[in-house]
Amino acid sequence: MNHSIIAVFITLGFIFIGHPWGGLVATGYYFAGREIAQAEYRWMAAQKTNRNNMPWYAIFTKIAWTFKGLVLDLTIPIVISAVLAFNSYAWTLG
Predict the structure, then answer these.
(1) What's the pLDDT score for residue 16?
(2) Are 55 and 48 in contact (CB under 8 A)?
(3) SS in 3 state form for the chain?
(4) Which long-range contacts (CB under 8 A, 24 or more apart) does 47-55 make?
(5) Which of 25, 72, 80, 92 has the fewest CB atoms below 10 angstroms from its CB?
């Protein structure tokens, strides 16, 4: 839930300065980066190793991702941001 609130504030900040699509991009990059880092930590915990021994493909494995991380913490905030950006753009058209 907190991720959705953060996404709204990021997007509204960009809408306020006149760049609604910038808010969508910033939200997407912010949460994607955060969740990729979390996936790395989950993989390292599952493998009982550190980042030095982590292969490049580690974040693409199933053990690195959870439903909460993928859907609740990544997809929903980006969808909320997209809806806000699209509605802001539609309001400016008339």
Answers:
(1) 92
(2) no
(3) CHHHHHHHHHHHHHHHCCCHHHHHHHHHHHHHHHHHHHHHHHHHHHHCCCHHHCCCCHHHCHHHCCHHHHHHHHHHHHHHHHHHHHHHHHHHHC
(4) none
(5) 92
CB 78 within 8 A of CB 9: no
As given in the structure block, the two tokens for residue 35 are: 């969740």
> For the chain, what is the domain count?
1
Task: Give the domain range for residue 20.
Answer: 2-93
Q: Both tokens of residue 88?
A: 């802001």
pLDDT digits (tens, 9 = 90+) for 29-75: 999 999 999 999 999 999 999 999 999 999 999 999 999 999 999 99
The pTM (predicted TM-score) of the whole model is 0.85
Residue with tokens 């309001």: 91
